[in-house]
Amino acid sequence: MLSLQNMTVIKIITTTxxxxxxxxxxIDSHEGFExxxxxxxxxxxxxxxxxANELISKMCNCTRFKELILELLWPVSYRIMFWIxxxxxxxxxxxxxxxxxxRIDNVATAKYILRNEKVSVxxxxxxxxxxxxxxxxxxxxxxxxDDDRTYFQYRKRETFRPLLLxxxxxxxxxxxxxxxxxxxxxxxxxxxxxxxxxxxxxxxxPDHLKNDMAALGEDHLHKKADTTCFLEEDEVDIGYLLxxxxxxxxxLISFHFDSASTLSLILHxxxxxxxxxxxxxxxxxxxxxxxxxxxxLLFYSYHSExxxxxxxDYCKLFMDVWxxxxxxxxxxxxxxxxxGRHFLKVMIKREFRYLLREASNNIDEYAASTLAPNTxxxxxxxxxxxxxxxxxxxxxxxxxxxxxxxxxxxxLNFLEGKGIQRLFFLEKSLNICN
Length: 434
Prior knowledge:
The protein is mainly α.
C-alpha cells in the first residue's frame, strides 16, 4: 500500500509530465532511446529537468517535497520514452494515462490515441494489434481500404509481422493461423514485452498449448537476461505471468534453472533475503558464465533507469554476492578482459559525467581529487554510493589499469565526441587504490 505522500508525489509528477511543452521535450529525448543507459545524462534531458523544475516550483514551495517529486522525473520520463519506442514510434501521443503506482496504463493510453482520427488508419491498426484490442481492431478494419489490408498481409519486413498477420487472418475469418503460427505470434509478443497481447493469447489459447507457450516465453526471457542482464518492467511482469501458466513440474524445473532470468524475477520481487538464500544454494552448482550473468544483472539493476530499491541497497547486494562467489570463480572472472572493462565503461559514461568535462576545462582539478571522500558530500556533488561502488571494484581487482587500457580506444571514441582528450582522473584514482 502506497502512503498518501507517495500517491501525491506520483500524481503530481505524472500530471506534470502531461504538460504539452514538457512532454514534447521528453518525446524529443526519445530519439536517443537505444542508448538509454546513458540518456539521462544527455543535453536533451537537461532541458526536460529545467522545465519540470520551473513547472513544479509554481505548484510547490516546499524544497524537500519538490525534491521528492523531481526524483521521479526520470522514471516517469523513461516510461514515456519506452512506451513510445514499443507501441507508437511514429505517433506523438498528447496524453498518457497512469496507474496509481506511476506506470503507464497501456490500454487506456492506447484507446485515447485510437480515438484520434488524425493518426493514420495503418498506424492505429498497428497500435491496436500490439495490445490485442479486439473491438478497436474490428472497428479500424472496417475503415481500411483493400490496399491497407493487402499492405499488412504481404509486407514481410514489418517488425511485428506475426502479430499483425494473426489479426489480418482473424478479421478475414481464418482460424488456422491460431495454432499453426501461435509459437511465432507468442514469441513476437514476448520479444517486445507486449504484456497485454500475452494476456489476450492466454485467454483464447487451448489449455494444452498454454504450458508450451509459457515455456517458450520463459526460454526467451532466460536468453535475454543471460545476454543483456536487464529486463524491463513489463518483461518482469510477463515472467511472473508465464510462470503461472507452467505445469507444476515445469515450474520446479524453471525455478531451479541455472539462469540469471530466474534469479532476476526473484530479485525484482523485492524478496531480497530469499534471493540471497536461493543464491547460496545455487552458487556451488552455477557455471562461471551464469555467475557472470548474475553479476551483470545486479550491476544493471544498480545502474538501471527504473530503480526498485535504493542505489545503496543494490550496491550492497552486489558486494554481498561477489564475496559469496568462490575465490576460484572470482579469479576466473577477473581474468576475463571484458569483465572489468564493461563495468568501467558504463560507470564512466553514466555515473562520472564530469569526466566529459562539459562544465570545466581544468582537468588538473579532477586529477587532484581523492577517490574516498570522508563525508557524504562528495567531490563534484556525486553520490557517495557511486564512489563506494567504484572503490569496491578497484579494491577487489575487478577494475584495473589493464582493464582501463584495454577499453581506451572505445572510451576515447566516446569521449572525444565530447571534446575530451585524456582520462587523467580515472587512471590516477586507480593508481591511488592499487
